[in-house]
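Components:
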Amino acid sequence: MSETATLPLAGIRVADFSWFGAGPIAGQTLATFGAEVIRVESEAHLDGLRTTQPVPPGKEGPNVSGYYNNFNAQKLSFTLNLGHPKAREVALRLIACSDIFLENYTPRVAEKWGLTYEDVVKVKPDIIYVQMPMQGSTGPHRDFLGFGGIIAPVAGYSYLAGWPDRPPVGLGTNYPDYVINPGHAVVAILAALRHRNRTGQGQRIELAQLESVAATLGPFIMDYTVNGRVPERQANRSDIACPHGAFRCKDGPPVTPPVSRASPPTAAAGQGEDRWIAIGVYTDAQWQELVDAMGRPAWACEERFHTFLGRKRHEDELEQRIEEWTRTLDAEEAMRLLQAKGVPAGVVQTARDVLEHDEHLRARGYYQYLDHPETGRSAYDGPGFRLSDVPYGLRAPAPLLGQHNDYVLRQVLGYNDEEIAELVMEQVVF
Amino acid sequence: MTEPLTAEPPTALEGVRVLDLTGVEGQYAGKLLADLGADVVRIEPPAGSPARHRPPFADDDPHPNRSLAFWYWNTSKRSCTLDLTTEDGRALFRRLVPRFDVLIHTYPAAEAATLGLDHDALAALHRGIITCSITPFGEWGPHAAYLADDMIVAAMAGIMTLAGYPDRAPIMPPGEQAAICGGIQAAQGILIALLARDRTGRGQHVEVSQQEAMSIAQETAMQTWDMRKELRRRQGDAKLLPGVGTYACADGYVYAMIGVPGFGAPMTTLVQWMAEEGIAGDLMEEPWRSMLGGINLRELTALWSQPEKLQEMMQRFAHIDELISAFFRSKTKRELYLGGQQRRLLIGPVNSVKDLRENDQLAARGWWQEVTHPELGRTVTYPGAPYRHSRTPWRIHRRPPLLGEHTLEILEGELGLTRAQCEMLMGAGVI
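Structure:
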């Protein structure tokens, strides 16, 4: 693949046996920067994301999920039914010519496949062998069932998100699946690659998702281990800024909630879309600019709001008063007005905003539009960082299921026609 | 005869040297590199990085050397004070640059250029230097100069709109997630640039916009708009299905995901468990009993196109949910977690940091790190590694640095300044 030859990870091959979110995103980052990432999947045990919403209206099948496609751009898809007794040999043949092995099942699965580290180093001594189990490969909970949605509550994250007087519902997504866990995995892999390049030694990497997420909660955890305090959720409030929160603006036109989700009460048919602005005031000067922006109303000039500690003491009232003002403005108008005055503020953007209204993301070309044979042209998240010597962007959309079977079987694994026919007929390649 | 010294295992980033000029929002990148063995030197203004002023503080004693947030994000690093707004500070800094491989900063582009931190200026001093900037919106584009904190980045990245209850404001992610995502993305970019440099000898610039760094965490919201022109919004604790969502229990909350095809036991298993405890209500009787097997996302998906049937199903769900809720309320988080796992039911406790500290799994795996702070005469428990390498293990190489703790070691030891010169620089407020 000549277009990738000059990319930093050119020549690195990844045998990507992972599925769902955290594993595949790690593989995608490696692919973006030039690695050849072969996603090993199977019709017999389909990646759940291939059959998950959203799909373009009227489309169905394993190739049209925006959820799957967004995490697998630029990869090659190779179908291998690991439940078949002959599949292990094919898998080992692939691993033998790969630099990195990646999976994110519970530890029992690699054992069942016969693809443990001990199995794999026999055919590829310097392999970088990466497992991303929920709980780790040792310990009393090692075989616990897990899933992206469970790890945020178990690792202590959800407890800290949201309103103190309401149940903790997290961020409405499987948040750690998308940057924290895959990002940590890529950092670990790249460090191991450097070590291999210098010493010739591969190694085993284990990223237990529980540990990976908990490791990002350091200051909260240390407030407990050092001060004995259990930090509680405090919605949008801050210990160092006031006001600090999201304030409602003028409603927008009605929106269509997804048919695939329970409709939230505020988005009922015919009702306008609620619009919000996030504002954070860190200094007295910023507070005075905010007061100016509001037209210096009498309440805001009262002495009790002059100081940070005063504003903190009257925070409920302060928030209510500010919202009376923001309610009269469009969210974008409020943001522009406040930013012009040097007050940190930003629209609580929706997906429509980031795709269609955010002039900044557009100017930077963050969202990548790629033509896909079944979905048509669709949007992908761009890479999360930019390198000055690497052109920004994605080169190819997500693969169709099994799209690259022929390439992998012939060019990578070196099977002949007869062998390939057998593997396909026996549904080893499936 | 002397005992052979136990050799420390090698580190993955041995020999990599990093200048860390980050503020509050970029510290994690340097920690990731330092705990993997890079020599990371924090360059701080003489008054200390603003990050040192972030609560919480050890023993609630607000002091620049006692910020727990600073401690955590700065393990394994050293600290050297240097005032880059002075000519002397900049001159010394320029002499340091060729001795390092990587420079990370969080200054807006214009300020970085004024301080001489832009890539071109530094590459003129050292062709191999890898620079990295981490800012809310990146170095260029219409919002490059916008002021933003962590919450505002999360708002602009489309993350907040998905979080919270429909009848209240959207909520921000806790714990400075834009900074964490930005730091993780930066570390990936820096390591790729290092691998590239090993082949080409040339450094390059890594640019991180925190907004872009966390955008992919919108999950499916972006694609749902792109493909279907439908908007995902915050759902609160509205439950799509009984058995999927947050439930109150005897001592807090659990998050349950029962009926996700391929992931654990179905609703029938939960109701069986309830029946064993004698609180399954009428769910073991018809018509409920035969309905239970069909409660999963796949069956529900099939009803999406039939709103009337969906509505009818939702009413039945309410009865089932009421009984499940009562069951959950009768048990503790731990009972539900362990009992659920025995039955292959996906139920996770909503753990506090105290629960985490007491978690059997983390304890059994030796995750926690005890780090000695000699100046306080105590040992402090730190969270452990995000990943485990078999040959080049992650570790905390040194406790977080006191302000300027390594200034002399660096200026005298590396730049060859005399003690008298260092004293003069101290007097002049440069260090």
